[in-house]
Amino acid sequence: MVDPTWLATAPALAFGAAALLLLLADSVDPDTTNTTVLGGIAVAGSLGSLAAAVYLLYGGVGIPTGEGGTGPAVLFGGQLVVDQMALFFMTIVASVTALVTLASMDYVREHAYQAEFYSLVLLSATGMSLLAAANSLATGFVAFELVSLPSYALVAFLKKNRGSVEAGLKYFLIGAVSSSVLAYGISLVYAATGVMRFDAVATAIQSGTVQTVVDGSVQAQSSGASVQMSILGVGIVMIIGGLAFKMAAVPFHFWAPEAYEGAPAPISAFLSSASKAAGFVIAFRAFAVAFPIGALAETGGAVDWFVVFQVLAIATMFIGNFAAATQETVKRMLAYSSVGHAGYVLIGLAALTGTGDGMSLSMSAGMAHLLVYGFMNTGAFLFIALAEYWGVGRRFEDYNGLGKQAPVACAAMTVFLFSLAGLPIGGGFFSKFYLFQATLNVSAWSLAAALVINSALSLFYYSRVVKAMWIEEPTGERTIDSYPTGLYTAIVAAAVITVLLIPGFGYVSEVAFRAVELL
């Protein structure tokens, strides 16, 4: 067993230390373009964070002492809590960051400001790790900003590319609005409860001391009050809106296709995988702990947030997948596909029954899908980065015959796409089946039907890429002069892990289920 009192922050500290080391190296030699050294520092920091997260996860941090663990690490007066759920998501973030930084060594080799690029990636990853452990609305908001601010610059990193700069500006403006909505929602919850820690918010709600607006005046909630509008209810709705932006859930998704298409492909992978996971972890923790369904149902004027998530999940699945089916460029198709997958993960919140095994099954299913999605979606976007490196066009027909020239990379892409669709070629099949089982467990037939219909639809547009690579004949001359080591290694590693998650998914789901139960 390990002592979690100081070691618990190691996953986040590894990212932060690597980012500071990169800035130090850049200050010593501002003109350095030694990609091997700079990229090596970033990869080493990511792998160090991954090793620390896995070590803590298996070392018993977050498991009660009576069950052979050391209990959760509570830091800064309970503002940060490193438990099994936090470590599970830290593992996802570190894995995706390691793949992205490794692939970026080839992608940014000819670009200036490489140290700044890697530093921004690692600083954003630091925020994601802290967000996984956030146990307070205030801490979560600060961590959100640490995630978002570097992301804006990363999307606009290709300064001579109009699409990249435009995407970065749109992302920044919409992100600023969403942060304002989230901050105002947090302020309303604080006004209603007087506290910000998740467990304290839940205690205030259950004790009936929530402030509401009754006949235009603020007063304490009482069972007989006729409530016109609840401060708490409006605050919860605004928090859902702020979090839905980071999840890229409909109708807050419109920034995602623009940002993912305009950003460098490794950054698209980073944002659509790691950043999405960060948005979901704070949602899982906040709505499982701070806003108990049963107590809210007894509070007049409060919102039944699980109903809101049911609507969001169904709308996100259908709109994301139908939009992806109509795209003519591969990268934009993957961008809308990631919106659809946000709908799948939302089942983790939409299929809750309140307490017990129902909550554990649905949330753990969402967590397990996020882990599998992290590898297969990151790998798919990194393949797009490889195609851009070779000068392959963006349209589906530009990929015609690519499988004959790059069979290994195209085989990996086939694994990613079919696993994203839910075929039993990768872990995506089992993660979607786990989600389907969670919907049936609570008789959420609409969610189950939406999951099946959209998975079938996704197979259509994913197959267009596979068909182009392996069946169609090239439409023009294409010459591949080099096979970048970093990109190839990251893509193959992601494909191997995606396949290995078939026999290993049972263990992943077990860890996720235990994390939710302990939460």
TrEMBL record:
Protein keywords: Membrane, Transmembrane, Transmembrane helix
Location(s) in or outside the cell: Membrane
Residue ranges constituting the NADH:quinone oxidoreductase/Mrp antiporter transmembrane domain according to the UniProt record: 134-458
Gene Ontology CC annotations of this record: membrane
Membrane topology listed for this record: Multi-pass membrane protein
Gene Ontology molecular function, alphabetical: NADH dehydrogenase (ubiquinone) activity
Membrane-crossing residue ranges in chain numbering: 6-25, 37-58, 85-105, 117-134, 140-159, 171-192, 231-256, 277-297, 303-322, 334-354, 366-387, 408-430, 442-462, 487-508
Matches recorded under Pfam families: Proton_antipo_M
UniProt GO BP: ATP synthesis coupled electron transport
InterPro entries in the record: NADH-Q_OxRdtase_suN/2 (IPR010096), ND/Mrp_TM (IPR001750)
Name by which UniProt lists this protein: NADH-quinone oxidoreductase subunit N
Source organism: Haloarcula salinisoli
